[in-house]
Amino acid sequence: MVPAFAGEYAVLTSGMRIRADRHEVEGDMIRLYSQQGYAEVPASAIERFEQDDYVPPPPPTPAAAAEKPAPPRDPKTMVREAAGKYALPPAFVESVAKVESAMKTDAVSKKGAIGVMQLMPETAKKLNADPNDPEQNIDAGTRLLRELLIKYNGDVAKALAAYNAGTGAVDKYDGIPPYPETQDYVGKVIENYKAAGGHE
Questions:
Q1: Rg of the chain over all Cα atoms, to the nearest angstrom
Q2: pLDDT bracket for residue 37 (50, 70, 90)
Q3: Residues annotated catalytic, as ranges
Q4: Cβ–Cβ under 8 Å, residues 54 and 7
Q5: Which fold has domain 2-51?
Q6: Which CATH class is domain 72-195?
Q7: Is there a contact between 173 and 161 (Cβ–Cβ < 8 Å)?
Q8: Domain segments of the chain: what residues?
Q9: CA distance 24 to 30
């Protein structure tokens, strides 16, 4: 096992960057460690590693936090914070949120998906999140996006298709399933992400 320095980005062959605290090489697999645990990715899916020089600010002291009530948080801020937490490009997570719900916390789809990241109740349950709580909803949806990107080795189209139609459909067709809704969804998210710069 070869440990590496803390704070880095794994740059996948797809161009997607995923932040990790460190990584270890085990044969032809690489483990990406983060506060949530670790994920294994084939070494062939990673092009290179880049150091992350960002140092998070110290948390506020309990006394300072108690002095002022926290102002209401808007969905865009929560989306960007969740993207930072799970080391995904903020513009990418924002694009998903816009296509899913237009960033509306009270959005409910015909199928029953709830909130900004449009979590189905059973998906939210698996992720131990309350879909009606905007912060938990956004955190869980962003965590799911990260898991799907790792599962599909940084293949953005497959990860988005799985977010929309489920991993079973993507695995069955080995790619974006032939559902017009899913194909339209993937196209819109990628188009919005590219329009926002595609790298933030």
A1: 17
A2: confident
A3: 100
A4: yes
A5: SH3 type barrels. (2.30.30)
A6: mainly alpha
A7: no
A8: 2-51, 72-195
A9: 6
